[in-house]
Design goal:
The chain has 267 residues and is of the alpha/beta class. It is 47% helix and 13% strand. Strands 5-4-6-7-8 form a 5-stranded parallel sheet, sandwiched between helices. Strands 1-3-2 form a 3-stranded antiparallel sheet. Strand 2 and strand 3 form a beta hairpin.
Length: 267
């Protein structure tokens, strides 16, 4: 079982909620009180619920499941990217594209275009045959695709669980997870709606220190799950990719394919 210290939650400011004028009554059970017009979250309840979420994440990863980290608000973007990368999981930190999960087949087509462009532009021989103007166009298209899809370009299927910061901000991600029966773990402030969250973590979802601490603990749980899986399989090690798509065809796309990608890829 995971261990979480109330002291470290306190030091990270996880207990600070929103102003008392901005709250969701459904979060009342997790509120300790208020001070100077700010709600204070009950960290003992937060710690208990966080341990529950961490154990579920570790177990999910140990069984080979993928975790999708989601945090598109400004103060969460860097942390979500860094912690997802640290535990070799997937992430969305720019803009959630509608249908990312519920229409993954179509999203996968855009991911395939991204990967093809990376191969093409990474091949010196192919680049040498392309007009400079065309290279510029392909690089712009690649940058556009990367902005939206770089964090999920190695995701070969639906995640087993979603971890996100602020379910109010990531409402569409929550809805898609619910529609597909994918469990959702969410750091949720006093103005959030806990109803559609499977593993609620009551806490400050605006402050950087709070977001960092919770995200680090989630990533640590993923790493713990990878270690369990590694021992069970007797092969993989931490740092080796998990659930990554095996690319059987490493050929460089043709110029015609690249031109088609440039014309058709719209994300």
């Amino acid at each position: 079982m995971a261990s979480v210290s109330v002291k470290e939650l306190l030091e990270a400011g996880v207990h600070y909620g929103h102003q008392t004028s901005r709250w969701n009554p459904k979060m009342r059970p997790y509120i300790f009180g208020d001070r100077n017009g700010i709600y204070l979250i009950n960290l003992e309840k937060t710690a208990a619920l966080l341990v529950r979420a961490l154990d579920e994440i570790k177990n999910t990863v140990s069984r080979g499941g993928q975790i999708l980290f989601v945090g598109t608000k400004r103060q969460a973007q860097d942390t979500i990217r860094e912690e997802a990368a640290r535990c070799d999981m997937h992430f969305v930190n720019n803009r959630w594209l509608g249908g990312t999960l519920t229409n993954f087949k179509t999203i996968k087509q855009s991911i395939d275009k991204l990967r093809n462009l990376e191969k093409l532009l990474g091949d010196p021989e192919t680049r040498s045959r392309l007009p400079k103007k065309e290279i510029v166009g392909l690089e712009k298209e690649l940058a556009k695709l990367n902005k939206s899809l770089s964090g999920i370009k190695n995701m070969r299927g639906l995640p087993a669980l979603i971890f996100l910061i602020d379910p109010s901000k990531e409402r569409i991600a929550v809805e898609e997870g619910n529609a597909l029966n994918i469990p959702v773990v969410a750091l949720t402030d006093t103005d959030g709606d806990p109803d559609d969250i499977d593993y609620l973590i009551p806490g400050n979802d605006d402050a950087l220190k709070s977001i960092k601490l919770i995200s680090q603990l989630i990533a640590d749980a993923c790493i713990g799950g990878l270690e369990v899986r590694s021992k069970a399989l007797g092969t993989a090690s931490i740092g080796d990719p998990i659930n990554r798509e095996v690319v059987d065809d490493e050929r460089v796309p043709s110029l015609a394919e690249a031109q088609a990608d440039q014309t058709e890829a719209r994300v």
